[in-house]
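Entry type: protein chain
Record version: 2
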Amino acid sequence: MQVSPVQALRELEPILRAIEAERSQRVHQFAQITLWSVVIGGLLSLGLAIAQAGAWALAPLGIALLIIGGVYAAKANEWRNTFKVRVMTRLVKLFHPSLNYYPNRAIAKQEYHLSMLFHNAPEPDRYWGEDYIEGVIDKTDIRLSELHTEYRQVTYDSKGNRREYWVTIFRGLFISADFHKHFHGVTLVLPDTEQSWLGGLGQWLQSISAKLGNQPGELVKMEDPEFERLFKVFSTDQIEARYILTPNMIRRIVEFRKKTDSPIRLSFIASRVFVAIPTYHDHFEPPSLFAPADKLLDPSTLAQYFEELRFALAVVDELNLNTRIWTKR
């Protein structure tokens, strides 16, 4: 049974007090190192300046700043790891007893490809994720994580100089959940950017895209005007797509889109529903290393993590996945 943030605070208070003490110690150590780095670097720079060493006079102060930056990064990373391992793992379990949390794991790359949600994008050159959660909510097994996929873009200017940069394919929450039905085909529900801009011409372009093989199967026209404005549907099996996307399911997807306020993508493949929710907010992160004392002991802080968990796991309720309409064969 799920507990409230206040009950979670009562359960976790000994751990929170212990890591708060560790955080204070890290801040104190950082302050000491910063002080001595600035003093020693400043004195050495002053000495070199008096000796008329020119630009080299700034070198000790620059080294001191590098030391300060490195120490801060190390202390902040230690604090982040401590919070995730000792607090988030327990907090997720308190949120729902069947769930498990792994801070350094992510949705498998094979599952990302299976979803076909980004099948038209280049193969990711960088695939990174964290905050993996898996378990069973009532009757539905679910797994999700934060995910960031990118590909490398290389360009050359008129002088032949090479420039390399990274392009994001997807950044946000990636979810895979049991739909309790074996699908014979592939059905994609994607954001409709063409029709929102071009109207009927956009829909014609979508149909041509499917015929050219850029999308699986054919464009499926749905009867709900609001859904049609927000999404485009492609499927290799029109009958199955309409069987999945009942009027009730369509309204649930529209409402879920409104709640997330994000151009979500869904696919129905191999008995699972895959959902990609673009977000540029890092979820499940600890308060700052320099947050006010006892920040973690404030009930509103734990309430924020509960809200992030509700948001990440909302797909089960929003799409009514625990209602078994079909039986697997």
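Comment: The beta strands are 100-102, 126-137, 140-156, 162-178, 187-191, 218-220, 231-235, 265-269, 272-278.
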